[in-house]
Amino acid sequence: MTLNIRNKLILAFLALNAVLLAIILYSHTISLRDGAFRLAQTMHLRLMTDQARMLTLNYEYHGGWDKVVTDDLLIVQLMFPGAAAQSPQERFEGAPRQSAAEFFNNRPKGKAGTPLKNRRPPASHKLANGKPVHLWIYDVDHQLIRGVTEPDNNYRIIEIKSKGKIIGYLGRPMSRELIKTTKEEVFYGAKNQLYIGLSIAIFVSILLALLLSTFFVKPITRLSKAVHKLASGDFAQRIEHSGKDEIARLALDVNFLADALEQSKESRERWIRDIGHELRTPLTVIGGELELIQAGIQQPDTQTINSLIEEFNQLNHLIDDLRILAQSDLGALGFEKHDFNLVELLQQYSIKAETQLQQKNLVFSFQCSDKHIPIFADAQRLRQLLDNLLQNSIRYTYSPGTVELALRAEGDKIRISWKDSSPSVDIKELGKLFERLYRVESSRSRATAGSGLGLSICKAIVTSHQGLIWAEQSNIGGVSIEIELPLNKTVVIS
């Protein structure tokens, strides 16, 4: 069985609540058990305090312990406080008295005080009916004067005082019936209430788990539907999002993905359309020339043949550029990288660039203050990059004009700047110059504008060298192509 996210959230929420409720139940059970026992101890201590006060009254009435400890009815009243407590005057001046047999079915309730240390073993004492005395009365010298021989381990001792002076000690065990009754009345009653509360908490937890899981899964469901639509080609799909949590950021990322896919689709459609146009134009010219020759309207003279060759060369150049870009996209663009001095390469290339630019009445200059700038790169691909930049300047720079090439090292980077004079490009279109087949002016003739792939190839070459390339408006009126390549610090060229 495969669980979806909603069911997993429900199970996780219920499992967490089950653990928390189990911990609460366990801790409250321990607390209630301890509380019930402490309550029993408090009641027992209160009972012993009342009994000590009764013994004090009888001690003062009789003037000593002799008659007090031999009074079985008093002892029974102390052992079983269910009977009505009688003062010494009531008991010894004709007031109704209760026999010991009336108290045997009653059990004490109460709590113990502080154990008496170093006590002497008590003597054996019983009531007149043979029942053992389950309490202990000691005199001021800690001598047992009434009680069983071996007291219960769970008994406690409290002081008996008269007029602020200790006259003896009283000890008695806490009865099991008292503990049992306290547990039944307090512990089990509170425990039942706790069970009812836990049952309500479980029901509320299930309800909250259903509501919260629906709340949390709802945006994920929207994301899933949007991604499915993107996968089916609906790149106009967008997701409304709010907040700053992970789901909101994921929705934002999906929207960015949709924008990228939509732009990629438009770029691909424009690419196919432009490629078709670029291929169709030279073929149309070649086909038209051949048809005229075939019809006898035009003679296959030198001018006509040169025109056909020019169209063929331009078509062949376009196909080569397309092949280079296809290889770059597939990561199959071949490179033969080695260590060399970039200053020497650009100095050698400057001679070629200056010769070609002079034919267009353009002045060329190369600026570099360093003699050695080491680089690990493909020299042939860098020359191809410079060729494309050179052809752009030849095609677009007004004559007379200026072209500048500058090279410098900046930290761990190499900076190459290729600048030309007017015309410039609008700042909004600078970032589009590296798009394939993009032309700033669509009305320019193919003879002037070329294939529109030169800067795209430059970007592919620079990217393959882990570098950056971008366009700026130059300070001499035209466009500045800025290139940043990594400096090879491990090589020192001598």
Average pLDDT value? 75
Taking all Cα atoms into account, the compactness measure Rg is 53 Å
**N-to-C order of helices and strands:** HHHHEEEEHHHEHEEHEEHHEE
Distance between the termini: 71 Å
Which helices and strands occur, and which strands form pairs?
Blueprint: H1 5-62, H2 66-69, H3 72-79, H4 88-92, E1 136-139, E2 144-146, E3 155-162, E4 165-173, H5 176-231, H6 246-295, H7 302-330, E5 338-341, H8 342-359, E6 362-367, E7 374-377, H9 379-396, E8 401-410, E9 413-421, H10 446-449, H11 454-464, E10 468-473, E11 477-486
Parallel strand pairs: 6-8
Antiparallel strand pairs: 1-2, 1-4, 3-4, 5-7, 8-9, 9-11, 10-11
Helix pairs in contact: 1-5, 5-6, 6-7, 7-11, 8-9, 9-11
Jot down its keywords.
single chain; 494 residues; alpha+beta; Helix Hairpins; Heat Shock Protein 90; 3 domains; five-stranded mixed sheet; 53% helix
Explain briefly what this protein structure is:
The chain has 494 residues and is of the alpha+beta class. It has helices spanning 5-62, 66-69, 72-79, 88-92, 176-231, 246-295, 302-330, 342-359, 379-396, 446-449, 454-464, and strands at residues 136-139, 144-146, 155-162, 165-173, 338-341, 362-367, 374-377, 401-410, 413-421, 468-473, 477-486.
